[in-house]
Write a structure and sequence with these properties.
The chain is mainly beta. The chain has 2 helices and 19 strands.
């Protein structure tokens, strides 16, 4: 990632952040105080919808908001979606304050009974009378307008050849920050003979840079009872670089021959967040 251009770079062209064009197509350098000050947002997609019969399972798409450090923002969702941890009295609304890095996150879920699988997420600056914010946050209000992204919820998937596996689902499009996960959920049939002998599933990265918890490219998530005759295993998968990774899910010791392939994807960070990551790695 190339550094943000500054006024000292006039006369030399740098590809990437820090450059802008006007309506006439003239290339100029953005003032250092405004570069990277607008809000932006990344929302994962593909999460299954929530199932009220499984109280311990909270599938959700992750909303990541980026902008001026310390900026208070209000995030709202539409079409029946709710936040996993909403503001009191408002299931479709959540107040956040961007961290010193200029980031904040929330989790959005959709109930199984909702008619739509696509919802809208909007984040906007929201400074209340009692808020005390710095001059930089106030100045950023001139350019930090609302941003909107869709959040898509997918049905879980099934293969007729499976015996132990029932269905599975997973999120895609997580930020490539190494800490925001794509989440895989696999449901299994615990009523089968020999099912009690299987306490974990086996997952491994067969292509790509993704890792599970603790930086490993293999994982053995435990199977927990989610409902009668239904077990559930979940795993978080991370990546510090954009791209797609393939995850193979199987049963240890080949007790059942079931296999599933998961294709998790990670997207590039907003320019100012990516620059901050690079500066920390130096």
């Amino acid at each position: 990632m190339l550094p943000i251009a500054t006024k000292n770079d006039l006369g030399a062209v740098k590809i990437g952040a820090g450059l802008q064009t006007d309506d006439a197509g003239t290339l100029s350098v953005i003032d250092e105080g405004s570069a990277g000050s607008v809000l932006s947002m990344i929302v994962t997609y593909g999460s299954p919808r929530a199932d009220n019969s499984m109280a311990t399972w909270l599938p959700a798409n992750i909303v990541s908001v980026y902008g001026p450090p310390g900026m208070p923002v209000l995030v709202t969702v539409t079409d029946g979606a709710t936040f996993v941890d909403p503001d009191p009295g408002s299931a479709d609304m959540k107040s956040l304050q961007l961290s010193a890095r200029g980031t904040a996150q929330a989790q959005v879920q959709l109930a199984a009974g909702s008619g739509d699988r696509a919802v809208s997420v909007v984040a906007a600056p929201y400074i209340q009378p009692a808020d005390v914010v710095g001059a930089e946050v106030l100045a950023a209000l001139a350019v930090a307008g609302p941003v909107q992204c869709p959040a898509f919820f997918y049905p879980t998937m099934h293969d007729a050849s499976w015996k132990f596996f029932q269905t599975f689902g997973y999120t895609r499009g997580a930020p490539s920050d190494g800490v925001t996960p794509c989440v895989v959920s696999v449901f299994v049939d615990t009523s089968l003979p020999n099912a009690n002998d299987i306490q974990k599933l086996q997952m491994k990265v067969t292509s790509g840079d993704a890792v599970f918890d603790k930086g490993a490219q293999t994982a053995t998530p435990a199977i927990t009872q989610a409902a009668q005759d239904v077990g559930l295993a979940t795993a978080n998968i991370y990546s510090a670089s954009p791209g797609v990774s393939t995850i193979e899910v199987s049963v240890p010791n080949d007790v059942f021959p079931d296999k599933a392939l998961v294709y998790v994807s990670f997207v590039a960070l907003p320019v100012n967040e990516a620059v901050m990551h690079e500066s920390e790695d130096v």
